[in-house]
């Protein structure tokens, strides 16, 4: 009796959740990510890792390859004469995972849902003013004003996934646990917060995936991701901590892939609040910041010190080859004296509760102390940061802007500095009519050279006005087994592993 | 006995109400706007307002609380996550068994080993085993769980390659979290068993049993242990309660998707319904454990039986 | 701390304590810790926030006794300043819990009846939320920071004190000399202050000593979960949490704060156990 | 049982028992000699701390080690040295041949086991019988000590003090031991209950004809129940005689003091004498007569060496130098 009880306890402890059958190596590609996935609904979150997983289940009308937009669920498209209507011709015979054939209705339904009530991605979807079904294989998407390549490019992001109307309606609010898309993989099992197991979809409309299974596993601790990569239980990991880079490099079976990202780390200054309303103070801070120092210490060199307002990888930034921004504490002191602060001043400094921000802040604190500015770090937990940074009298803060759907300046810089975003994402209360006008013009223009020239003017103004002090753009650092091929690691936070295979 | 249990189960009602009220107040005071967090900083004022209205966040405190209680009692519905839109019940259903397995495993391990060590220490008081075990027990109490977890990973995953460093799916994955989580309880149970056994071993009825010519092992198990068990069970109950909460740390170190992490993530992302749900379940589990402990008392100690009849 | 009023009692307690080598060791460590905390600026060779990026990740040496961290800060100095944080959080959190919990528990026991019922049901509710989760919720609602952290840890520990004090007050108020005092017409306040509190100080002191350790551990746990002290202010738990990513390459970074925490907790436990044995030999474990 | 065996039923020779404590080596029993004839009831009398219980525990082989240790001597039961037996053999003798009734019935019973189980355990250990027989025997024992057998399934806390002591007696006698040691069996009981329990013991002793050592500091109880009496002081026997002789004419000054400190029941009002001073510190026993410092007839010589037992009258022994010198005190 007692023995039985003990056996029962052991059975319960070891077998409560189903043990995954061992998957053959080579058949399964396992990706180690750093966030727990709980729901797979593209419209309820802006979380990049959720969208990363979704990119394998769902597909969008267009795909992005490098800098160009390529056909995916749409065979072809054209920008109509009003410059704000895109007519898409859908690919025929595309099947969803539940066997349904994709139609224009699904497309219309998906976009309406993306911009409808309760959607959390409205920052991206709200530019869409209208979706129209022309016939079963033709759909027109309209924006309120001409957005040229900015909008088209954003359609490659998983927020614009085409969902199966029937499946969404039948599962209702629980759709996130039973997603149905047209992608190369379909969901086999979602262990919330732990792993997402996908399997190859054999009715895929184009080249099928080479691996049978694709699994995303969550490791909160960066150290654990590296350990699991070394032990071979995962094939790729994201966000390799800088300290582990050399270890992975030294391992003959592993390699590091570092891709410059468009995540823009910056100090945000409140232009409504003294002394930051004084341009000389802002310029002094800009000179007092030791960017290479931060890059070295916090990112172990795996970051690019800022050369302009946005990371140089952002489209139309065009200052890839400019020199580094100067680090000159003496000149900074002089500027401060000119601004009326010969002995510096004291200020609060808002830091979101995350280790990279805290580490950067620690260095900034020390940098600015050198020129007489005494920062008192005020850690704000992430859930509270957006709220705090909206307040009109907020202190300077450190933050990054890193999750736009494309690297187009329309998403990479507009939200930060356009005056219409004051109170939302323009946390500097920066309002410059000239910049506003340039940004409006820039997004509508289709000619590349003209566009570049317009944005050049924006960068020049910002380099003087300095509503935010740009710091750096880190690299996305992946660790992978050398035998994994076919994956193009992305500058955005979303990397597509669907073409991966083992050699 | 049945009536006793029923009466105790009835106390769940005020406790649950109190816990939710306490949490509601705490969350109400917590800065940070859920709407802003869910919809993102880009969200327009209209969108935020709509979100707050939809989730009743624009209502006064008492209305919100009243509505929550009404829905929970009348519709057995504690709401949906702001973020995933899944029902809180289903999120808990995913996470709670994991935490339960984690903490039951840990308390089981701590109890088994703690009692064995404690008994040996008591029987061989002042022996080398006793001294070494007591030093380790002290270390166990003094080591932060997350630090021990990191050290275990370092030893067993990195250097020895014996066990995986994270997850909770396979038996191998469960061993390190169990050990890390149980260390404090193991130490406390060992110390408690030792002292309780020492006290009992010196008592007259143990001498009576010896005077009968009973075997020493039988004396320890049949006579001493059962009498020493009351304070040990109390400690185990308390420890189990601590483990349910403390599992958060093991869940973080080993990336285990349990209810503690669910609650902490939800607090950080202001996902109020999920915080409520997670904490209510943990509190219920705590109350039930206490009930179980009380029932165990009466099973072990006949003197208490009459009291609960 | 409240000591028993009778000198003989105190003397006997100290005498018994002196015989317990571990307790004396614990006491010595704690006195050293306290001195370190008070004189931190004089002892520490560097300021806790002084960065020297060129010297980052230096192994322990004559220049930096415990090496430097990822910012090139001297770990030895940070450990010394960290003693301040730990003693502050530990002492203040426990004082908060002891005073408010003690008052609640004492009134519950003394007045009994409905007041007892209400207070203790409230404590039950507090206790049914796992302490660490309660501390997290409180810390989140107050925002990060040393003071808020202290409050969170203190409030989470409050019900335990209420229970302990209530228990011992109940035992004591049932005894004859309290009845006698009451018969003599002593006021409630007089009885509580003069008779009850001094006599239940033993379990309170023991509980407090052990609780300081738990408060330090809870602080470390909260730091680990990202609700800790503001950088660059050094807190051992926070240092441990921040250095965990470097544990494979620069193990010394975690060893120093880890050992600091462990030694402090052990000292507190040795002293707590010793005090318990000394104050009430019957309770000898 | 032949004469030889009857005479030397139990023979304790030069028994030394010591305890290691924080304050030093406690010599609880220090060179004790004692013998008991078969069927005899011996009263062992002395102050608290004289070593009575330790002697009993030594016979039972129940000296807790550590801190205790039998440092020397031998204990013969029916000619066999108990101290030379293996642990296993000792275990079979305990309970089977020698049984003990402890001082405090309140704490001597295991609170978590039904009383019949506690009796049955004894039977199971020393008799071969199946479960039903064991249970029946246990219940028989209960009715023998005057408890309704139905109450056997109850727990100790449901019994009163006197009833508990009856259960303890039932346990002790369950296997019909040849030697019974009763350590102050009535001290913890009310006076009226004491009488009942003593009466019970008297009946049972006759019923089983068991040799008995009755430890007591109550001279009245001893006078009532015992055939002979041994007086113990500081770990040694200082006087031994049959009850009548000893009460009629105590020889040792300690015994005499003991009698003077008991109220005279004849009604003569006189002040009770107490023995001045305290018993010697057991960690530091004097080299000579341990009673010398309190003895009103002591001479300097008394403190030089230990007095040995001297037969003052036939069958009446006492350890006093004065007795030897003058043939009586």
What does this protein structure show overall?
The complex is a heterotetramer of chains A (about 500), B (about 300), C (about 280) and D (about 325). Chain A has two domains: about 230 residues, Periplasmic binding protein-like II (D-Maltodextrin-Binding Protein, domain 2, 3-Layer(aba) Sandwich); about 210 residues, Dipeptide-binding Protein, domain 3 (Roll), CATH 3.10.105. Chain A has 17 helices and 20 strands. In chain A, helix 9 runs antiparallel to helix 11 and helix 16 packs antiparallel against helix 17. Helix content of chain B is about 80%, strand content about 0%. Chain B contains 14 helices and no strands. The longest helix of chain B is centred in the last third of the chain and has 38 residues. The model of chain B has no long low-confidence stretch (mean pLDDT about 85). By secondary structure, chain C is an all-alpha fold. In chain C, about 75% of the residues lie in helices and about 0% in strands. Chain C contains twelve helices and no strands. Chain C starts with 6 loop residues before the first helix and ends in a 6-residue tail after the last helix. The N terminus of chain C is likely disordered. Chain D has about 325 residues and is α/β, with parallel strands linked by helices. In chain D, helix 5 crosses helix 6, helix 5 runs parallel beside helix 7 and helix 6 packs across helix 7. Chain D is globular and about 65 Å long. Classes of the chains: A alpha+beta (about 500), B mainly alpha (about 300), C mainly alpha (about 280), D alpha/beta (about 325). At the B-C interface, helix 2, helix 7, helix 8, helix 9 and helix 11 of B face helix 5, helix 6, helix 10, helix 11 and helix 12 of C.
Per-chain topology:
The complex is a heterotetramer of chains A (503), B (309), C (285) and D (329).
Chain A (H helix, E strand, L loop, with lengths): L1 H14 L12 E6 L14 H10 L4 E4 L2 E4 L2 E6 L5 E6 L13 H11 L7 H4 L2 E8 L2 E6 L4 H7 L10 H7 L13 E7 L3 E6 L12 E6 L3 H10 L4 E2 L7 H6 L3 E7 L3 E5 L10 H10 L2 H9 L3 E3 L23 H10 L6 E8 L2 H16 L2 E8 L1 H9 L6 E5 L7 H4 L1 H4 L15 H12 L3 H18 L2 E14 L2 E2 L15 E2 L1
Parallel strand pairs in A: 1-10, 1-11, 15-16
Antiparallel strand pairs in A: 2-3, 4-5, 5-7, 6-7, 8-9, 9-10, 11-18, 12-18, 13-17, 13-18, 14-18, 19-20
Helix pairs in contact in A: 9-11, 16-17
Chain B lengths: L1 H9 L1 H18 L4 H6 L5 H10 L6 H14 L13 H36 L4 H15 L2 H15 L11 H31 L2 H8 L4 H38 L5 H10 L3 H29 L1 H7 L1
Helix pairs in contact in B: 2-13, 6-7, 6-9, 6-11, 6-13, 7-9, 8-9, 8-11, 9-11, 10-11, 11-12, 11-13, 12-13, 13-14
Chain C lengths: L6 H13 L1 H18 L1 H4 L31 H37 L1 H16 L2 H12 L3 H28 L2 H8 L4 H12 L1 H24 L11 H7 L9 H28 L6
